[in-house]
Please model this.
Amino acid sequence: MALRQTPLTCSGHTRPVVDLAFSGITPYGYFLISACKDGKPMLRQGDTGDWIGTFLGHKGAVWGATLNKDATKAATAAADFTAKVWDAVSGDELMTLAHKHIVKTVDFTQDSNYLLTGGQDKLLRIYDLNKPEAEPKEISGHTSGIKKALWCSEDKQILSADDKTVRLWDQATMTEVKSLNFNMSVSSMEYIPEGEILVITYGRSIAFHSAVSLDPIKSFEAPATINSASLHPEKEFLVAGGEDFKLYKYDYNSGEELESYKGHFGPIHCVRFSPDGELYASGSEDGTLRLWQTVVGKTYGLWKCVLPEEDSGELAKPKISFPETTEEELEEIASENSDSIYSSTPEVKA
Amino acid sequence: MQTPLTIPVPVLRLPRGPDGSSRGFAPDGRRALLKPEVPEIQESPVVQESLESQEQRARAILRERYLRSLLAMAGRQVSFTLHEGVHVTAHFGATDLDVANFYVSQLQTPIGVQAEALLRCSDIIAYTFKP
Model:
């Protein structure tokens, strides 16, 4: 009896989810932050999707969100012309960094000492988080709004994407080292430190480049416009999602499409693998985040495989079951925000 | 899309959503120990958590951290210090429920490499790995 993917829907946002990021693996597990147009980014436990808290303070849509490696700090980029740094344990706002236009992207260095920001003012800014009052270092050169900026090469270089270019900068000299030009709008960028790989999506293409030389490695075409893609930590798979509301999983080596999933009710804006590669998360225009298993049927997080032997001879049926539940019904259950799936009306003893 | 006979992967429950009344970051959450201790001088009718339940909570948190360290170790190269000054390295696989045995592979011993092995916890003095 084959098993099919049960995505876990994380509700709570009321507007489109436009960005998401995982932390590294910490002694407390790993964590997930989501950026939403409702201005209220949320922190969740990474392996279960359980809500931990909401960062309150932004006065506009939050376009970018990130966590530092040990998930002690969070940073967000918003349409209120600020980037904010938060204590990810208490939820308190630590710093507000004023910008001159909408901020779209934020990224911590490995040691969490510096924050990189970028946005519609076309400038890359580097803030020293130990000296928040000091003016940030500014790098100019982009000719259109910056969509994504990432530290790379052990934080010695910066990768940034605007509408039609991806540029590599040297941090120390603040000069451009190399650039790539595209005919179509670049929709997303992901940097994989192990192996120095850059994942870029534009149009229906998912392209892989060397993060050091920007030379192309390979690229795949998807059936629809792709907004975001992510490469598995072991580089066996990649996942991508976009305008047709579907998530695609490909074999990285052969380019073969392995699986595709419907489930979201709107375009997918962001997709990322967890740091242990066991699941991937997608954020959509429909306001939800969904968690998907990399290996369908494996016991991990909230997914629990019930084997036929454990059921004493009966056909493997889910014990806490939604065997006939459609996606829509799962949606309804999820939106009730309650733990108990079955309503526990106490029995009245006459 | 026609689906052949398949059943959805069972789940224990759905992810918990926001509670609607607060911004979260529960003060007694799993990362509570990371926050600096705030001395409670002024608060009067605060029910002091009994020493016992404080200790129990700390035990639970430490146990969870230990279990997560085992998870992080899976598949990695680990160096074990055994009795009589013996050091071996191996790829860590798993432990059993009581953490009485460590299942390892490619165990490098002074007398050769063992493809699969069980190390008894009582034989291990210490182990170390880089995540």
